[in-house]
Design a protein that fits this description.
mainly alpha, 59% helix, DNA-binding
Length: 214
DNA sequence: TGCCAGGCCGGGT
DNA sequence: ACCCGGCATGGC
């Protein structure tokens, strides 16, 4: 399935955006939000010279919220950004690289301890910012695998993550691009409550679910 | 015009 | 252990 998507769509070159801090910020801001909204919020942060740990720590939460308004849930996400920045600042000052330069297990545990960072956001940061192998599962991943009968509805985040991590060679570029391909397919061919995926790169693979509830 | 977007949390059963 | 409402702007 990866080869089929890759052939049709080409390498997705994820994460879109620049540098490890921007990846972390984007991962939090894009929670249940389209990436185009995140782009304009990130542009605001850059224009306000706030794309550093120090500036994000210094800026008042209310002002930060205004800068990221386009992402929606902006008050909530301002809080979540602050929580993440506090974790980095506690041990590493402004040095995001040093914060990320630790084992994936330690990183994941610390990230999950932050209010506002759940499994997908943590894994996105580990895979795309720290560049360590940690497969990212999102709603598209769930949906696509469910439609193809590869998982059951009650399989949780960890079960789906395990399926990928135990099956694929442990390769950061492969895992990163695989997730990116699934998002591309999800956005364009596998939308919510739509049974048919006309022209989908995965059309050749069996669809066991003909009446999707998701 | 309504539905959806690259989730996560807190409170209620 | 689940289930649900809340969070909110922008694009199609």
């Amino acid at each position: 399935m990866y080869q089929a998507m890759r052939q049709r769509l080409g390498h997705q070159q994820w994460w879109p955006g620049d540098g490890p801090l921007e990846v972390c910020i984007g991962a939090i801001l894009t929670q249940n939000t389209s990436w185009s909204n995140v782009e304009s919020a990130i542009a605001n942060l850059k224009a306000a010279d706030c794309m550093t740990v120090g500036r994000l720590d210094a800026i008042p939460r209310e002002a930060l919220a205004e800068l990221i308004r386009p992402v929606g849930y902006f008050k909530l996400k301002a809080k979540r950004l602050k929580n993440f920045i506090a974790l980095v600042g506690e041990g590493f000052g402004d040095d995001i690289e040093a914060f990320l330069d630790r084992s994936g297990e330690v990183l994941r545990q610390q990230l999950l301890g932050v209010n506002g960072i759940g499994p997908e956001t943590a894994d996105s940061i580990i895979l795309y910012a720290a560049e360590l192998p940690s497969f990212v599962v999102d709603t598209y991943t769930h949906r696509i695998l469910l439609r193809h009968g590869l998982i059951s509805p009650q399989d949780d985040y960890q079960a789906v993550k395990d399926l990928f991590e135990w099956t694929l060679p442990q390769d950061v570029d492969l895992w990163g691009d695989f997730h990116a391909q699934l998002v591309a397919v999800g956005k364009n061919f596998c939308r919510r409550r739509r049974p048919l995926c006309e022209g989908c790169p995965l059309e050749q693979f069996p669809h066991d679910i003909t009446d999707p509830t998701d």
